[in-house]
Amino acid sequence: MDKVYFLPRLLYFFLLFAMAACSQERASNVASEPQAVAVPEKAAALTADTVIMRYWRGYDFHDEVNITNPDKGEQSLVNFINLFPSSSPDVVSRSIKSMLSDAQQVPAALDFFIKQYEKYLYDPNSPVRNDVYYIPVLEFTLDSMQLDELEKVRTANRLTLLRKNLPGETAADFSYVLGNGDRGQLSKLSSPLTVLFFYEPGCSHCEEAIQQLEQQPYINKAIEDKSLAFLAVYPFGGKDIWKAYQSHIPDKWINGFDEQGKVVKKGLYDLKATPTIFLLDADKKVILKDVDVVQLLGYFGLR
Fold this sequence. Notes:
Blueprint: E1 4-7, E2 22-23, E3 37-40, H1 48-54, H2 65-68, H3 73-82, H4 89-103, H5 107-122, H6 131-144, H7 149-162, E4 175-177, E5 183-185, E6 193-198, H8 204-214, H9 217-224, E7 228-234, H10 239-244, E8 254-257, H11 262-265, E9 273-274, E10 276-280, E11 286-291, H12 293-299
Helix pairs in contact: 1-4, 3-5, 4-6, 5-6, 6-7
């Protein structure tokens, strides 16, 4: 294999356990902070796309050590994921599918990497979860692997959910009821930006996120100036539970209840964990999908 040199570490892994989400599909054992990223020598002379597409060149999927040793296979995958933001989603998708196609020669290796992709890109407790990057994994699984009927249905359903509300697409519209009995609709909010914050009463991580966001002067001022709407929604049913929890939601926020239960029943959003946070533009197109507080604040240049 080519000689390697190292780039900076993946910073968000420091937040792995602090930002773990309240999840209906609670996952465990998310790996600890990765080491430095290894990329080919003379990478500065290569485009980001080339680096990603060549990343797995020469990797020995037949070597069992590359699976059993976390510093080998798992670390290599973490470093690979760390390179994704430097390239386009299309190139990332092609590189993932190419890598999995190579790994498919060794069933144990393919199974290992499929599970690692799920842990890092789909697990709600992973700070680098990303639906756009996980979609190619599911597409490859559905198209190239021998699945039984139940696995096909489960994979296809998950893929359908992930393809909804992607960045650049218009967020699924829904209506909600307010504490005073008035009704509102997501698409009717007129602010240049909208934070859509799905929460669940009693979720400790929701409460932490609410506290962090409420303490941000920039966020509060933007809401007051009407340059930002902050819509908090309880989507899981139980109107009495929602009413009893209203004092926990900041007064400046719009606190809505999905009285018709459409968000969950119709699968309008993939709510695998709470809080689930979106940032939308004036036309309700998705800017950020399913991000944590750190990523949301980062968009505004806040820490």
